[in-house]
Design a protein that fits this description.
By secondary structure, the chain is mainly alpha-helical. The chain has 10 helices and no strands.
Length: 291
């Protein structure tokens, strides 16, 4: 039997070992990816000097990274399909026992897939973004500390921009899910005018969600462009960096800047996940167990 507190958190806790393994391997994979530009830069410098040791080391590192990535992806499919199967069976059984309306059960079941996809695909992307932000700053410090300061100047406008975005997207996600819950009921009525109006309304909310994301993306990219441009300008006249070093610096600045692209999507997804969990927990309170 389920209580109404932390529905998804409890399920994730039950699978903490499997999730801990996949996310631990992901950290190793991201660490290898983080040092790639540095060693590729070294390989470029070696090749320009007529040496091949740097290239050989880079190739070995790259092979190790993609083998780890392959193994993790095989494992991910198995752990997350198990989580989804357990979650949806448990949810349907519990809500049927509490005599929740079929339309709500159907809507919840489709939303559950979004929750599992969030942990399987999007959490990996978000961790990758966070890793790039922190790791790129760390690597750039060893090249030129001034570039780190330029990169960190991006944080304030990003935080302010996404604060207002989060407030707007939360309201729109709630309205979209409210409309989605009516789908089975509306289709069951069989009135084509209502069905058409329902799907047009869903389309309108989806467009609104996309538009908010596009505006946020554009504002973020404007600041990102400034960071990249000013960072490269600081290299003007530098003689201590070889071609490979400049490549590494540019790559880390770019990775740092574009890593913030995940923030709007993260806000949107988290808003959706919280709304779904709130609806399920509201059902558990509205339809108390008869036990």
């Amino acid at each position: 039997m389920m209580s109404s507190t932390g529905f998804f958190r409890r399920l994730m806790w039950e699978h903490r070992r499997g999730l801990g393994l996949t996310y631990s391997v992901l950290i190793i994979e991201n660490t290898l990816h983080l040092v790639m530009p540095f060693f590729l830069g070294r390989a470029i410098n070696d090749l320009l000097a007529g040496q091949y040791g740097g290239l050989g080391f880079f190739i070995s590192l790259y092979v190790l990274q993609f083998l780890i990535g392959m193994a993790r992806r095989f494992y991910d499919t198995r752990i997350f399909t198990a989580i989804y199967t357990q979650l949806v069976i448990r949810l349907i059984g519990e809500q049927k026992r509490r005599q929740v309306e079929v339309s709500k059960i159907a809507a919840r079941s489709s939303l559950i897939r979004e929750v599992v996809d969030f942990f399987e695909y999007y959490v990996h992307w978000y961790l990758y973004g966070i890793y790039n932000i922190i790791g790129s700053v760390f690597m750039l410090f060893f090249y030129k500390p001034l570039i780190v300061l330029i990169c960190l100047s991006l944080l304030l406008p990003i935080v302010v921009n996404n604060y207002f975005y989060a407030a707007r997207i939360r309201k729109v996600q709630n309205a979209y899910n409210n409309e989605l819950e009516r789908q089975v009921e509306i289709i069951g009525q069989g009135e084509m005018d209502k069905i058409a109006a329902h799907y047009h309304q869903l389309k309108a909310w989806k467009i609104r969600i996309s538009d908010l994301g596009a505006i946020n993306f554009g504002a973020t990219e404007f600041f990102v462009l400034g960071v990249i441009a000013f960072s490269l300008l600081t290299l003007q006249g530098e003689t201590r960096f070889g071609a490979g070093d400049i490549f590494g610096i540019y790559t880390y600045v770019y990775q740092f800047a574009v890593a913030f692209d995940f923030v709007p999507d993260f806000i949107e997804r988290m808003s959706q996940i919280r709304d779904i969990e709130a609806r399920i927990e509201a059902d558990l309170k509205e339809y108390p167990s008869e036990d």
